[in-house]
């Protein structure tokens, strides 16, 4: 991780430029940007054509956000994220959107604009870009994170990347996209004002209102107000925290909590787990480490990665000499150390998880450690976080895991402020499950947007805006594609169904060899079971299973049944019945017949 | 569900007696109770022998609570609960404690005393009683719920059941057990004062302090105080909510919320999901139904079951004619109906789940419905609850799912009150994960209990109290037994490991027939896969797998390798390598060799 000379601190508006050598060595190779404008004078957009908007992900779900704006012969995509698998998507690594429609219309796509660098907004890019290559537009940090992904997938240099800053406007076909500064739990987040012949649309991306941000400026509320005065046709708004009343607290509030905990942790080593992407949080940790005279080490691949990029680009200001390599931590007294680590969601194999299970190659947790989990469990992760907390406590560490975090998403009052500033004709809640969308819709109603102008849509449903009027105009293919290992889309519902069956009650394989001519049983049946019962204790059941299968096969032979499908069916039925009666379980039964 | 005549309401202290006919028809067959005392004058306990306490479940976990008190030649068991499987216990129905030690010492067990009727306190009884039959002591509702379980397991009439009331004391060997009224989220809950030659112990069971309980009296704080003055050696205390500051609100607070919602739901049908065991909640729903002129129908097997028992025993007071059968609801206008239902945790196949997925045989949810989920998600269930909420909203119902519940477990201030009243020499936090136990321990420290007198123990660890001194004295077998279908304990770590493997990446079965004498390949290999890839799209991969397997088998034949173990190993290794290289997945590979 490179460090900036504190004498020339990076100014908030323009992240510090890397040194020439560093720039040459590590700066991403970027094309000359397409002509675009900085500042408020924007290229004009000729009105007239209808605008269509369709989301291919991110509605009625949290994750895989991707929305297409289509006007005339041009398509602009906003974001391209992944989703994490549900608990019933056994063995699946991640979920990406079905982009059949994009592939079909690839010649009309003018570019992808990215609101920020979270996985649910950029994570599907490597997979989608392999299907349809498109130029990308995003802030510096966002594109740096994208480049890391492209590299992992062997796409370095094959995709055009255009760096933008808040205030810039880019012309994409008959539409323009203006980037507007917002606050979120990752730096470099923007909202978009998409000006089209069919109207002016504002897409908030993920945002909150933070009056005291750690880096950069407060969300550009004035610009939302100006747009509202110009006339916003449609507002697509983040619904994640629409159920929560009040305001989301500023990121600096976490700083206050950290300050108290740093003081409390005097004499102990600090281990702080947080989201790798939350550079602002890491900045505060670094600042307090300096204040309290501690060194900082970083653990966890994604944390090392993101912090490195952030420091290089100037989003993270680190005093020289403060950071030490994780391999060198034993050279320093524990009470002078802070370890910043991944694993705030209790993820298996994260650095904190390995520490909790005494499996980390450098960090051995004990009573001299004070652990802070600076994150809230994402819904679904509560038990995995609990497990790690319990294990760390067993090792003797003091663990603080509550109230050292604030959300990155706006709550009800903030949402209403943006709605009121934009004063849109149409309100389209996005980025949420159905209940979130409904709640956001009710907020819009509460500030006076008429019910008929509030659009609850779904992925694949095409919205058309024409001369101030709206209607749904059909659907396009949309859905999920499961990624497992290197396979994309080859794990579908049948494979999942089978995995579920195997997971529930295991498997019985029945193998027999029969004579091809006569159908007589030549060898077997042999029974092999996995995941069903502990065989050593269930020998009589296994033997009874074998005998039952044998009876069926011999009956088939006697009756001259040679159609394999029929034979297998009968074996399956007989064994299912037997095993259910005996065990009330239904293992998968797989008859395999060899012919000699 | 039988109803009581409102003219003679059941008094809180003594639940109404069923009519003679009903009593004869349905009253549980109970033995004449062992001699026991009502009121404050208790049989004396001769001091002298050391007392040993060991928990076989309920420590460092939530669930399967069971504790044994051993003094001289006598053992008394407190509770016998089950736990629900973790997400990694694939296909497992429930988890019960390993009671090897109880079976070994069965001749010394004088009885099981039950604190209340929740599954994590009584759910393992049918399984354990089959291994060691013991007399049971509990309040009327608790034993009625136990009887339902015994009936399901064919144990009716085979177990001695003794009904007790708060204030009663039972002599069990050299120990006495006094039952003390407490408040909890199920009626008939008690704490225990266990007087032994080795000291007086108080076990709180699950409790809260409710100054305005719906049924029965407030927790008998005075009695805890009296015991504290007599001298409590050890206090075993519920740690579930030890992390939560303040007080748990009274059950009546939910009533206030319900009142508001009943008013808001005017003109719509009400559907209210809550825990079947929370009779107090159902009572309030019944009361408001009457107030607002609605009928009540009940849906869900456990809800019908528990409400029926509760009404029969007088824990639930229902005005005559208020309740209608679920099959009759169409005879009444929707706005005059409240349906009380199971499914507050989003459990698959519960009544509310079936309603949400349009699969309920009587209830079709739509915009005329107002659904209330009167429960908080138990940690781990957040996403299942969300799913049901989203589906119900999609059907057009209004859904309220937050803040219509209070916990049944004491928070920090209540815990400290009981600690202060009891003034125990030793404090033993129970009923919680490690973090809960640690937090409860820190509360004890905060009110002055010395650190050396605070005992964090674990299942299987034996605590000995002798003349005011404490030490650990070894361990007994303790752990978990998995129940799957009718099988108890035959799903162990190997079976689970296999299920996990199958769930992750599926399975490849490789079947070949070889000549027994020469080792030559006679038929096959055939490849069958399940849960791995969608075969139709992966034919070339499957073919390559088959060819690789064939090459290995032929090589083995050529090299005269006839040892099946070796042949299978080589096939497994070759295929694992191939498949991982091609797919980055590791399906289970099952070679099966038939010999002719």
From TrEMBL, chains A, B:
InterPro entries: Metallo-B-lactamas, RibonucZ/Hydroxyglut_hydro, RMMBL, RNase_J, RNase_J_2, RNase_J_b_CASP, RNase_J_bac, RNase_J_C
Entry's Gene Ontology molecular function annotations: 5'-3' RNA exonuclease activity; RNA binding; RNA endonuclease activity; zinc ion binding
Keyword Metal-binding belongs to the record: yes
One BP term from GO: rRNA processing
Superkingdom classification of source: Bacteria
Positions with a binding annotation for substrate: 276-278, 405-409
List of residues binding Ca(2+): 91, 93, 484
Subcellular localization: Cytoplasm
Co-factor note (free text): Binds 1 Ca(2+) cation per subunit. Seen in 1 crystal structure, it is not clear if it is physiologically important.
Cofactor(s) for this UniProt protein: Ca(2+); Zn(2+)
Active-site residues, as the UniProt record annotates them: 238, 409
Main location: cytoplasm
Keywords from the named record: Calcium, Cytoplasm, Endonuclease, Exonuclease, Hydrolase, Metal-binding, Nuclease, RNA-binding, rRNA processing, Zinc
Residue ranges of every copy of the Metallo-beta-lactamase domain listed in the record: 63-258
Coiled-coil blocks: none
Family according to the record: Belongs to the metallo-beta-lactamase superfamily. RNA-metabolizing metallo-beta-lactamase-like family. Bacterial RNase J subfamily.
Record-given protein name: Ribonuclease J
Species, as recorded: Ethanoligenens harbinense (strain DSM 18485 / JCM 12961 / CGMCC 1.5033 / YUAN-3)
The organism's taxonomic lineage, starting at the top: Bacteria, Bacillati, Bacillota, Clostridia, Eubacteriales
């Amino acid at each position: 991780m490179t460090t900036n000379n504190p004498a020339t601190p990076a100014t908030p508006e323009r992240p510090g430029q890397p040194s020439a050598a560093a720039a040459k060595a590590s700066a991403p190779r970027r094309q000359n940007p397409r002509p675009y404008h900085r500042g408020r004078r924007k290229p004009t957009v000729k009105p007239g054509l209808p605008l269509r908007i369709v989301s291919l992900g991110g509605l009625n779900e949290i994750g895989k956000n991707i929305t297409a704006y289509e006007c005339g012969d041009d398509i602009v995509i906003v974001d391209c994220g992944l989703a994490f698998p549900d608990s019933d998507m056994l063995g699946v690594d991640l979920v990406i959107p079905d982009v059949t429609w994009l592939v079909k219309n690839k010649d009309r796509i003018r570019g992808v604009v990215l609101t920020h660098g979270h996985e649910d907004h950029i994570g599907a890019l490597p997979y989608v870009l392999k299907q349809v290559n498109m130029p990308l537009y995003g802030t510096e940090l966002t594109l740096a994170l994208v480049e890391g992904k492209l590299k992992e997938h062997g796409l370095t240099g094959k995709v055009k990347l255009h760096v933008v800053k808040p205030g810039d406007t880019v012309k994409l076909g008959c539409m323009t996209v203006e980037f507007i500064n917002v606050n979120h739990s990752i730096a470099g987040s923007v909202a978009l004002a998409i000006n089209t012949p069919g109207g002016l649309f504002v897409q908030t991306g993920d945002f909150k209102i933070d009056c005291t941000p750690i880096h950069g400026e407060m969300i550009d509320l004035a610009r939302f107000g100006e747009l509202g005065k110009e006339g916003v046709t449609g507002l697509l708004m983040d619904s994640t925290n629409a159920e929560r009343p009040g305001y989301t607290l500023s990121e600096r509030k976490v700083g206050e909590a950290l300050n108290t905990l740093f003081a409390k942790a005097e004499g102990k080593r600090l281990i702080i787990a947080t989201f790798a992407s939350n550079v602002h949080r890491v900045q505060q940790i670094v600042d307090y480490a300096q204040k309290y005279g501690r060194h900082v080490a970083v653990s966890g691949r994604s944390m090392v990665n993101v912090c490195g990029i952030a420091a290089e680009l100037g989003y993270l200001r680190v005093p020289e000499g403060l950071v030490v390599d994780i391999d060198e931590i034993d050279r320093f007294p524990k009470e002078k150390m802070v370890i910043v680590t991944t694993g705030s969601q209790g993820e298996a194999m994260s650095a904190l998880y390995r520490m909790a299970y005494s499996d980390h190659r450098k960090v051995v947790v004990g009573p001299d450690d004070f652990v802070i989990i600076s994150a809230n469990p994402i819904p679904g992760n509560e038990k995995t976080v609990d497990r790690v907390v319990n294990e760390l406590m067993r090792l003797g560490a003091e663990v603080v895991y509550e109230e050292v975090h604030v959300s990155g998403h706006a709550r009800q009052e903030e949402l209403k402020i943006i709605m009121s500033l934009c004063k849109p004709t149409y309100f389209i809640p996005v980025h949420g499950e159905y209940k979130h969308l409904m709640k956001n819709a009710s907020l819009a109603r509460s500030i006076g947007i008429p019910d008929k102008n509030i659009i609850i849509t779904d992925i694949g449903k095409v919205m058309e805006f024409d001369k101030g009027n709206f209607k749904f105009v059909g659907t396009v293919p949309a859905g999920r594609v499961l990624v497992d290992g290197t396979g994309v889309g080859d794990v579908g519902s049948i494979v999942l169904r089978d995995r579920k069956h195997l997971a529930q009650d295991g498997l019985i394989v029945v193998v027999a060899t029969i004579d091809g001519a006569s159908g007589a049983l030549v060898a077997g049946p042999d029974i092999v079971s996995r995941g069903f019962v502990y065989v050593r204790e269930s020998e009589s059941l296994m033997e009874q299973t074998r005998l039952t299968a044998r009876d069926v096969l011999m009956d088939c032979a006697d009756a001259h049944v040679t159609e394999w499908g029929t034979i297998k069916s009968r074996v399956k039925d007989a064994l299912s019945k037997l095993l259910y009666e005996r065990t009330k379980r239904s293992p998968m039964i797989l008859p395999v017949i060899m012919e000699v």
